[in-house]
Design brief:
alpha/beta; TIM Barrel; 2 domains; 7-stranded mixed β-sheet; about 40% helix; binds zinc ion
Length: about 450
């Protein structure tokens, strides 16, 4: 069998290895989807005569970004200026009641296309009817952690079920050459009963997958846990047994106190930090510095299209950096290297895939992106010397639209800023075709059920 080899080279390469090594005139030898060697273009070219070199001018290479918390969807711009609980009851839950599988699939095509175009190679998507999402990822080429949006409680029986979640695991976990992983998901602990908890934990253990849920996003949740259980949420998680799963990733974790942070630091737990969403829904500012210092892997996530309103991980890293500085005005803020690690290798660790992705190092899957440097916002750019500013520019200046090439598993999916694996205009047209129907059914549901849209904060 002939092996597929190529060398990808650019003006600079950020490895995001343990030393944050940067190589001037850096290059990667990609062989059958795997990073076989990393060095300068001259070194790799000399050692591999006859192997084609793709030399990118005015570009830097870095690992593909890892978006640790996303919801596919197309409510973008239609549910604005509301705090999280009003927003859930008036817009989001009614949408979930009427969503159909073909609409969910159209949303995932849109989400993964946007992600790849902006340099995100791995998407942790909590979404519905995820067979369609898996098919989208299989074709379009991104790496996916599919997490069904499960409600296992009579009040939330319109969400996906644990039966659907298990069927997804059996059909898709580690499929598409290992690009697709399927975890056990729960919208929120209060969307399940005790039997649901037991089954979710047992399922994650038996299939050796991660578990993902939202928690401690809004302050009101902490009161809800104390009212129900007499304890703060992370201690309740510990009692329930969520930390007995192979890995529990908590979305948001805004209101964790020092004792909760110390607790999860000793568990198989991680956090998806969603700064734009937390600002937009007026949720609060997470204690990211304390969580990182305690050793909790904290990744960055955009959250859904309706709470962001885009999937631009460069923007998200910038906001994570800025919000960290705003939060910690008197102590050490999040520095650019740390934030860039959160968007790459620490994010990979938060989802248990740091042995496969997150840095440009031999043996890892070839998930690599190229960012333009010949733009005003990247100028001046110094990849070495006393004025080295590459990491600051990547975090604070670059936009997703500056990504010219996106490679996953050694396959080029975006080239010259264009998606090669699917027709982006057809994806957009499909969403335009199906969106009005979803909005109409939701409006009809709301008209017929006025006053019946309770959320747990008022009903329990
Ligand atoms: Zn979310």
């Amino acid at each position: 069998m002939t092996r597929q080899k190529m060398i990808l080279a650019a003006d600079a390469l950020l490895t995001m290895d343990a030393d944050n090594r940067v190589l001037r005139n850096g290059a990667v030898l990609v062989e059958d989807g795997v990073i076989a060697a990393v060095g300068t273009a001259a070194e790799l070219g000399a050692a591999n005569p006859g192997v084609e070199t793709k030399a990118l001018r005015n570009a830097v290479l870095l690992p593909g970004l890892v978006n640790t918390h996303v919801h596919s969807g197309f409510l973008r711009g239609t549910a604005e200026h509301l705090p999280v609980w009003d927003w859930l009851t008036q817009h989001i839950n009614p949408m979930h009641r009427v969503l159909q599988p073909h609409e969910a699939e159209a949303a995932s095509w849109l989400c993964y296309a946007e992600s790849l175009l902006g340099g995100t190679t791995t998407v942790v998507d909590m979404w519905r009817y995820m067979e369609g999402s898996a098919k989208a990822a299989e074709t379009i080429g991104n790496r996916l952690v599919a997490v069904p949006y499960v409600g296992e409680h009579p009040d939330y029986n319109y969400f996906d079920t644990l039966d659907m979640n298990e069927a997804m695991i059996e059909a898709w976990h580690r499929k598409a050459d290992g690009r697709i992983n399927v975890w056990v998901g729960l919208e929120h602990p209060f969307y399940s009963d005790d039997a649901g908890y037991r089954r979710a934990i047992e399922m994650a253990k038996r299939h050796r997958t991660g578990f993902h849920t939202h928690c401690s996003e809004a302050r009101v949740e902490v009161d809800g846990f104390i009212k129900r259980y007499g304890k703060r949420p992370m201690f309740v998680f510990d009692d329930i047994g969520f930390f007995d799963t192979p890995l529990t990733m908590i979305a948001h974790a805004v209101w964790l106190d020092p004792e909760e942070i110390a607790l999860i630091a000793g568990k198989r737990a991680s956090v998806a930090h969603n700064p734009v969403s937390n600002m937009k829904l007026a949720s609060g500012i997470a204690n990211v510095r304390e969580m990182l210092d305690a050793g909790v892997p904290v990744g960055v996530g955009t959250d859904g299209e309706k709470e962001n309103n885009n999937f631009d991980m460069f923007e998200e890293m910038k906001v994570a950096s800025l919000l960290g500085k705003l939060r910690y005005d008197t102590v050490q803020p999040l520095d650019s290297w740390e934030v860039l690690r959160m968007g790459t290798i620490t994010g990979a660790k938060a989802i248990g895939l740091d042995h496969e992705i997150g840095s440009i190092e031999p043996g890892k899957r070839a998930d690599i992106i190229a960012v333009r440097t010949d733009t005003p916002r990247m100028t001046p750019f110094f990849a070495e010397g006393p004025y080295f500013n590459l990491h600051h520019n990547i975090v604070h200046a670059v936009r997703g639209g500056d990504v010219t090439l996106t490679m996953v598993d050694g396959k080029i999916l975006v080239e010259d800023g264009e998606l090669r694996t699917a027709d982006i205009q057809a994806i957009i047209a499909e969403v335009h075709k199906v969106a009005p129907g979803l909005f109409e059914r939701r409006a009809a549901f709301l008209a017929a059920n006025q006053g019946d849209m309770v959320q747990w904060t008022t009903s329990n």
